[in-house]
Q: What sequence folds into this?
């Protein structure tokens, strides 16, 4: 497994934003409407903290990865759930408050975990990513399956507690406890709020040695 210090190495870290599609967040989405107004309010309430986290991630060289449902007719998940977040629709677009920026990695997934039937693992390893900051929806389902797959592939994990939510607050808290029981090795380090993570990155960046700039050829002292 990864070293406990790797979560403080921004350039080998990534924030994974799970299912922040309109369908999961706003009225008119199949999932959002199934959850009802209370759920929608809680899903929308994570957007400010997540927005601050993503802004800081880009500033500190942390990779931002979106892993979002983009379903097609016939996807196996649709045997369990009604059609939702269908590819090419408004429902599958990422919520505007946390929309991707140039340079971000966008992965369209067809089931709970992006590690199933996408190239996310190869994409992360090609970028030298060792630590994943897990955010999004839902703590007890897609975030849980993503975390399990990432854990079993050797990634270090940090769960951003105020940038995760579920259909109910109870389910959200149960999801966090599941992570603590089965995947966490250092709960103090691995369960952080968005602002705590940003402060961690700022300290890590400040402590990093300044890059060595080579002198031009022929330069004399």
A:
């Amino acid at each position: 497994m990864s070293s406990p210090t790797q979560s403080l190495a921004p350039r080998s870290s990534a924030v994974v934003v799970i299912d922040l599609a309109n369908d999961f967040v706003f009225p008119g989405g199949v999932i959002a409407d199934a959850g009802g107004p209370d759920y929608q309010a809680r899903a929308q309430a994570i957007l400010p903290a997540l927005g601050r986290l993503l802004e800081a991630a880009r500033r500190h060289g942390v990779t931002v990865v979106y892993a979002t449902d983009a379903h097609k007719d016939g996807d196996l998940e649709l045997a369990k759930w009604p059609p939702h977040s269908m590819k090419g629709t408004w429902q599958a677009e990422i919520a505007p408050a946390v929309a991707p920026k140039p340079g971000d990695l966008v992965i369209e997934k067809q089931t709970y975990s992006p590690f199933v039937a996408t190239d996310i693992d190869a994409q992360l390893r090609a970028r030298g990513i060792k630590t994943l900051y897990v955010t999004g929806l839902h703590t007890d389902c897609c975030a849980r399956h993503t975390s399990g797959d990432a854990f079993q592939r050797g990634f270090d994990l940090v769960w951003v507690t105020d940038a995760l939510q579920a259909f109910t607050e109870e389910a959200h808290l149960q999801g966090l406890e599941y992570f603590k029981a089965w995947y966490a090795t250092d709960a103090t380090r691995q369960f952080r709020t968005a602002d705590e993570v940003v402060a961690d990155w700022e300290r890590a960046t400040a402590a990093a040695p300044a890059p060595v700039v080579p002198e031009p050829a022929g330069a004399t002292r």
Remarks:
- Residues 1-7 have pLDDT under 50 and may be disordered.
- Residues 6-205 form a domain with the Rossmann fold fold (CATH 3.40.50.850).
